[in-house]
Design goal:
Length: 208
């Protein structure tokens, strides 16, 4: 791992646990074991470092979106992989809260360039969810109560609300329970209607 990658990785952990305004270059320097001047060489301003963290997350979302549009995929598997990733991260404390979610909480105090990157992250994630939910509805796997865009935004809010609840209660299981309920609500209320088999009256009459 290069020094730049180590700096981004360190900043991600610090933002996830302390928020943007809760860490400094001194914290990163101590964790990565470099001088602050070395950090400034790679990232002149603190917002540049935080933006690099968010850009890394956005790149993964964009990559996943391109994979969705490239061919066939199972929407349920994709959605459960997304929620399952966060369930594991919260349970083992490797990523107790999404870095973009932490930054969104501090949005009014963030530099403009970083705030714009955070908003773009949520737009990318919402677009990804919209594609997954649309395909799921087309396949009869999901029953959407509103438009795919509205459902995507609602699901996004549910996931981030579940992260917050799990942190507030200090119980990772809270996240899993809320998400399981949210996935359950997407399921169709009744089985897809089976096509009817046409029955033509027989022209041959049985003899008595």
């Amino acid at each position: 791992m290069t020094t730049q990658e180590k700096l981004i990785d360190s900043a991600r952990r610090l933002i996830q646990t302390r928020g943007y305004n809760g860490f400094s270059y001194a914290d990163v320097a101590e964790e990565v074991q470099v001088r602050k001047a070395s950090i400034h060489h790679h990232f002149p301003a603190k917002s540049d470092l935080a933006r690099a963290v968010v850009e890394q997350s956005r790149a993964l979302i964009v990559e996943q979106t391109q994979l969705l549009t490239a061919g066939d995929f199972d929407p349920e598997t994709k959605l459960r992989m997304y929620t399952g990733y966060w369930e594991k991260c919260i349970a083992d404390a490797s990523a107790p809260f999404c870095v973009a979610g932490m930054l969104a909480c501090e949005l009014p105090t963030l530099p403009d360039d970083l705030a714009a990157e955070v908003r773009a992250h949520f737009r990318d994630l919402s677009n990804w969810l919209e594609i997954v939910l649309t395909r799921g509805a087309q396949m009869g796997r999901y029953e959407l109560k509103g438009s795919a865009r509205q459902e995507a935004e609602s699901f996004l809010a549910m996931v981030y609300g579940a992260m917050l609840a799990a942190r507030a209660y200090g119980d990772p299981k809270v996240f899993a329970d809320i998400v399981a309920n949210g996935l359950k609500k997407l399921a169709p209320t009744r089985a897809p209607k089976q096509p009817e088999i046409s029955r033509r009256p027989s022209s041959i009459r049985k003899r008595p």
